[in-house]
Design brief:
By secondary structure, the protein is mainly β. The protein is 2% helix and 52% strand. The protein contains one helix and 16 strands. The chain starts with a strand and ends with a strand. 20% of the residues are buried.
Length: 191
Amino acid sequence: MGTISNLKSIKRGTVLIYNGEPCRVTEAKFLRMQARKPVMQTKMKSLSAGKTYEYNFKQGETIQTADLDRTSASFLYRQGDNAVFMDSASYEQIEIDPETLGDATNFLSEGTVVDLLYWNGEIVSIGLPPKVELTVTEAEPGAKGDTAQGSGTKPATLETGYVLQVPIFIKPGEKLKVNTETGEYDSRVTE
């Protein structure tokens, strides 16, 4: 485990030890208030328990970083609610439960390469690529004049079952790039 002494080193995505468990910082805002010491206002999500915490780190406070081991793996298939991955180095198949997967389950299609994150020998989370390509399975046709009304988007269902807002010109069968951090449409995949 490492330590952080400078508050500005705490950024979105940093994994810290908080309440004895690894937590990923989801929001970090440096606040300098008049006549007070500066603080780093954070929101964190526990990688092992899924809980969300809010905490203000103060200057001079000892902050421990989590040492996570990473291994690359490819998503193979779903088995019930679980997802099965193949470790890229050992070719071992690893089954991961939905609680550990969290929202990542929305972005997993066959062959997606992820990082399996281990803490103390147990998988606590998976790291997705920033963007993934997924196929649209359902999308209502856009009506003429929709963009004139200011509603230039419509809901679309992806191959994983995830529903997101897409531009009205998107049709079923098209491949899209989706931002895995925000869960939002990024672009169409052109071949």
